[in-house]
Model the fold of this input.
Amino acid sequence: MSKNIQIKVCTGIGGVAAGGEEVFAVFREALSSAGIEAAYGDRCSAHKVGCKGFCARDVLVDVVIDGDKTTYQYVKPEMVERIVREHVVEGNPVSEWIAGDDYEQYYSGQQRVVLSGCGEEDPEDIDSYMRNGGFLGLRKALIEMRPEEIIATVKNSNLRGRGGAGFPAGLKWERSFRVKSDIKYVVCNGDEGDPGTFKDRALMEGEPYAVIEGMIICAKTIGSHSGYIYSRGAYTSSVRHLQTAIDKCYERGFLGRNIMGTGFDFDLRLFKSAGAFVCGEATALIHTIEGKRSMPTPKFWSAAEKGLRDMPTVVNNVETFASIPRIVLKGASWYRNLGVENNGGTKVFALAGKVRNTGLIEVRFGTPLREIVFGIGGGIKGDRRFKAMHIGGPSGGCISEESLDIEIDYEQIAAAGAIMGSGGLIVLDENDCMVNTAKFFLEFTQVESCGKCTPCRVGTKRMLEIMDRITAGKGRDGDIELLEELGHYIKATSLCGLGMTAPNPVLSTIRYFRHEYEAHIQGRRCPAGVCKALITFTILEDICKGCGSCKRVCPADAIRGTRKTPHRIDSDLCIKCGSCFEACKFKAILRT
Amino acid sequence: MRDRNNIEKPLQDLVDDSAKERENIISVFQSIQEAFGYIPEKAVNLVSKRLNVPASRLFGIITFFPQFHLKPTGENIITVCRGSACHVNGSERLLNRILIELGIPPSEDTTDDFKFTVEKVNCVGACSMAPVVLINNEVCGKITFDALKRKIGKIRSGE
Done:
């Protein structure tokens, strides 16, 4: 009866979307009844934890009995009763629901440093963080280290900005430290506006205390007493967890006046952004906090020297700050040696798209991309063929199969035509049209362009018009060259990172998949069968059984036919949504 | 959400409250939108007077951010994620079908009876559950059109 039982339910974003909240409620209820409470008291408890990483298998539940962990996958509320009865009470794990070998494989290729507490700790409970070594890094930084020593540690760790550009964090801190000013600011950039990544969200939601601890260490180093966490307002649970964490840190004396009795003061506030992609740019972000339109301004000096309200301001990404406590605690060489030359440590990515195992991953620098797709990712869904990997969100690029042997490293990824960006990895398969994908990202950056610089505002619009024309089957000879020319000019003449990278998706797809552009322009066809104007749906009359399932799903009422006789698609009415193609069990619908 | 027809007094209170403790214009508009579902023109003028900032500048800020609505929104907000993971998993088709299902004409986003507003969001950060749709902020992952249609039906019938 001395057993200590903990049940950890994933309530990260993936977990919640799969029903994690209900699963947690049912667990809590089951544990409080059935005499379990009487038998174990507070030694048996259910906890909500942050993103466990393997979101494709959510809801994931860990049952930890005396440190011995068993993980269940795809848990539904109705499965809880049996897990509690057989595993918790009788001690026999429910073997058919336990996550299998591929679950192990998913984690074995990873090195979880920043994410080590994510999915293990209750993000709303400060004690849970402290039991896992929380605030020890802060203690060391406040009590044992001088600012110069902290800067040297961060510099030697080779930690580079995790927002995407990869500027060395230690150098940024040093610049700010050198400026003499009574007022300095520390700002955490959690604006993650890119489509296709959620690593900052997972960190803010699953490990808010690590982010805050990193910020306090930074504040102590540069001599700042005021900071902001800039989070996307649309990330409601991040906002909630961060606010709870800030409040609890004030209660426990990690924020406010005289932190840990050292006489150091630091105030931290949460700022909810109103969701514009360009706000992730440091100067634009600063203008938003100042209550202005978020337009980037020229960087005659770095924000580290003259930023928010013209005061020295360190702006770092969520992941950068979350890495700091462990670097301070375990030392620079430990962190540096996890990575490769000039790229210290590990990097968190959101792996999504057409791979089997989607979720949040953390790998060492130097890990080959191939290992991520086929090892951790488990290959392509439905045994289709890999086509491309999109790295770095709308500012990034697509990398083809032959370049898949490059390693995770800021320079190698840039040389391949993409950017590290904020850590979104989207895997595309043979059913994805590269021209359409590039157009999708360009549409995004076009809309999000703040409109300040002409090359970005007008140039991306012109590029988009050409892309529209190509995907509509009206491409002209010379369009590819025109896109390349425009792209290079926009990159060279834009002020901020948005414009400088906006043409990347187009340029990189032209570089690796020129034949697809040519097929659209010269052949007037979309090889992947995606671009609406270039495909038609027809029913093969000798295969059609007349079951009517296509007719039922057609939103445009374009399918005619009586039961048990072959149906027909009225091409004038067809909106080419492809619903019939998916609904047909007999593969009687041809997409050409 | 508060009564839309009688906004003068609550609006005045809200502007006073939020302007007092908030240094930031964006936060003020966020709380106005939270309370009313959109930013009424009256609110802009009130904030302008209260903070002594020209209304034109405030409109500039509001229209810059996709989060802010200047027109009333429906009672229920359906947010379709248009992130890249959702895109490759068919969110565009999903969005088109929702608009057809609800009978929302092109370039509009709200049904005539103000029951539903359909909006797009860049990314909700649930990429591994793509495609994702939020119904009144409840995250629905790996959603199909049929499942969504059932949910819309339930809301319509008042369940």
